[in-house]
Every structure is written in C-alpha cells, then in structure tokens.
Amino acid sequence: MKLTVNTKYIIIQGLFWMLFCIGMGFMSLYLLEEGVSNIAIGFMSASFGVISAILQPILGRICDRNARYSWKNMSIICAALFAIVCLLMLFFGGPIFSIIAIGMMTLIANLIMPFINSALFYYKNAGENINFGVARGTGSLMYALISLIAGNLAAIYGTKVVPALGVTVALFFIFIICSMPYDLNKDTAKLSEINRVKNNKSAAADTNEITQNPDANCKNGGSFIKDNKIFLMMLLGFILLSSTHNITCNFGLQIINNLGGDSTNLGTTMAIQAMVEVPVLFCFAFLIKKINSVKLLCIAAIGYVLKATGYYLSGTINMIYITQLFQIFSFAIFASASVYYTEDMVDEKDRTTGQALMAGAIVAGNVVGSSIGGFLLDAFGVKNMLLVNIILGVVGACIALIAAGYSEKLIKSRR
Q1: Max CA pair span of the chain
Q2: Which of 370, 97, 93 is nearest to 254 (CA)?
Q3: Which of 234, 247, 295, 301 is geometrically suited to a Cys-Cys bond with 403, CB 3.0 to 4.6 A?
Q4: How far is CA 386 from CA 164, 181, 322, in A?
C-alpha cells in the first residue's frame, strides 16, 4: 500500500520525537550511571545547547537561501550522524566520552527540529493536505511510548539500551525521509521569485548568487532582527519559559530520586507528560481555527508557570504524575502554536530562519535551565532549584504576554 505524503509526515514526526526523547529525556540517567556529576551534566547540556542555538539559525538561513541544502538533505545528514554517535556508545564508555556523545545526541536532535517544521510548509505550499496537529500529536504519542520502553528496559538491562534504541529509530527515520517526495526545481524557482520581489533591479544577479553562494545572504541577519523585533521579544519570553520545562526534564531523575523513585518512575513521568499532549495536538487543526496563535501562546505561558509551581509543591511521586497534566496547557500548546505564530509573524523569505529561531527557544531554554539547574541542584538542593524555576517562569510569562499585545496589533495591521 502506497503511503500518502500526510501519512509519511505523521510518521517522521513520530520518529523524530522518539529521537528527541532518546537524546534528551534519558541524559541524566545515562550520565549519572557513567559517574558524571550534576554540575557537569548541566555544563555539558548548556554547552551543546549554545552550539545548537548558534547553528540552528545559520543552517536555517542556508536552507532558506539555497535549495541544494534542503530540509530533506539536512534531516538525512543529521539523522545519520545521530545513528553513528549511538553506535559508538555501544562500544565505548567512560565519563568524558559519554559527555561528548550525549552532548552530540542532544545537539543533533535539536538541529533536526526546524527542518521537520519547514517540511510542513513546503508540502502545504505544494498543495498537500498536511494535518500538523495529528502529526505532532503522534510525535507526543511516540515520545510516551519510547519513554516507557527505555525507562523499563534500562532498569532491567542497563543504560546501553538508550543508544541501541537510538540507532534503530534513526535508521527508520532516514528510510522514511528518503521516501518523501521532493522537487529541487520547485524550490529553486521559489527562491528566485522571493529574490525578485525583494530586489527587482538585480533579480538575475541575486538569484545566481543565492544558488552559487549559500553564505551570500548572511549579511541580511541584521535586517531580520530589525524586521522582527516583536517576534524576537516573544522568543525571549519562551526561552525563559522553556528553561522551566528543561530544568524538570534534564534533572527529572534527580527530582524523582529525591522523592524515592527510580528510572521506571522517570519513564512513567515522561510518558504521562507526552500522553497528555496528544488530545490537544490531535485537535489542534480545530483549535487554531477558534483561537489564534497569539492567544494560544498566552495560554501556554501561563501553563508553564502553573507546571513549575506544581513541581515545587509536589511531595510524592504521585503528585509529580498529577503535575504533568499541566503539560496540556504549556508545551502541548506551544509546540504547535509557535509554528503557526512564526508563520503569522515572519515573512516567507525568512520562514525557515524564523522556525529555526523558534525551535531554538527550546534549545536556549535548555542552556539557561541546564546552567542554573545543575549549579542549584548541587549547591542548594532540589527544592531551591524548583523555587528558582518558578521565578524564571513568571519573568518569561510577563515578557511573552507583553509581546502578545504587540503581536495582535501587528497581525491585524497586515490584514
């Protein structure tokens, strides 16, 4: 049976979020087993987060300006590198190697994200009917599934289960991506048209430079900042809000251990977190018609603060499970609404760059959360780390809500 483009896109979203879970969700479990300290885990996560935050917009800019470096090619290259790193982890170990390997896994997983989001609009512009809500919901469903599998298998067979699963999922991901239709000529024509609109007087020269020199338009970075100040303000708010999410994810095992739990409880916690996202994401196509992307991001901002507060107040494993329900109002909404918000706020010529930056909010939040979380955990303990987590969320929410007001006015003025 031949699969439709929509079905294949749903599958690659599912496989991508399985990769993301393997790279990020079990970071502490793997590294603690290898004898790495909390501060070192935080420093590693922050360091590789900075690298990915820098690389994401650069690769996005190249993808926007050169059809040869398409979302499809970049996704395949990144997934192949992910598989290689996981394969090496099966044969080598030790604190230093493990830090580098896990860091590379998180880096590569973060780099894939904007290309998967860009694929959505590539196929929509080509006339394909892509249901992003169902695709992203499948991603959360697969995240939950791999969380339960990895958490339980790791408790029985050890942490080498994590990279073994990584190799398997990455190979399936590459296979499906390779089967996705892609027309280089259409992308080249689109880039040429964007360039002509931008500068009619030098259309021919500009088009030639874009196709021959992928770095030719890097100088336009300043123009992107100037044209998208409100978008970048919203980005800053969600960097802080994402840091609250990443603190509880990256140091989830330590939080669980503090309440008397183990890797099985960690897997269950992550599975609940992912499962509750599914109804929102599956219904997102309906939701976005009723509530615009700006209002949805306001709901998400408040949801992040409520979730951070719930973690601080939790005194048992069961309370942590209940707190995960706030994922419905935080990351579940942000995951889809941020993609549509970027489409509403950023010009088409810069859309992959915008998607890369929005995906980078999660990465940058990981940098902030890892840097602060690792230090606070060793210096002041779990409870104080979670208290600071609430403060970060409140500041981020205030910035996001202010940006939302400006965004509403800007979007209305364009219509």
Answers
A1: 68
A2: 370
A3: 234
A4: 32, 46, 16
Q: At 348, which amino acid appears? A: E
Question: Does the structure show a pLDDT above 50 at 216?
Answer: no
Higher-pLDDT residue of 7 and 363 is: 7
The tokens for 383 are 């409870």
The pTM for the full model equals 0.70
- Judge contact between 71 and 119, C-beta under 8 A: yes
Cβ contacts of 47-53, under 8 Å, gap ≥ 24: 47/103, 48/103, 48/104, 48/106, 48/107, 49/106, 49/110, 49/363, 49/364, 49/366, 49/367, 49/370, 50/367, 51/107, 52/106, 52/107, 52/110, 52/111, 52/360, 52/363, 53/360, 53/363, 53/364, 53/367
- Residues 233-267 have pLDDT tens digits of 999 999 999 899 888 887 888 899 888 888 788 88
66 compared with 58, residue with greater pLDDT: 58
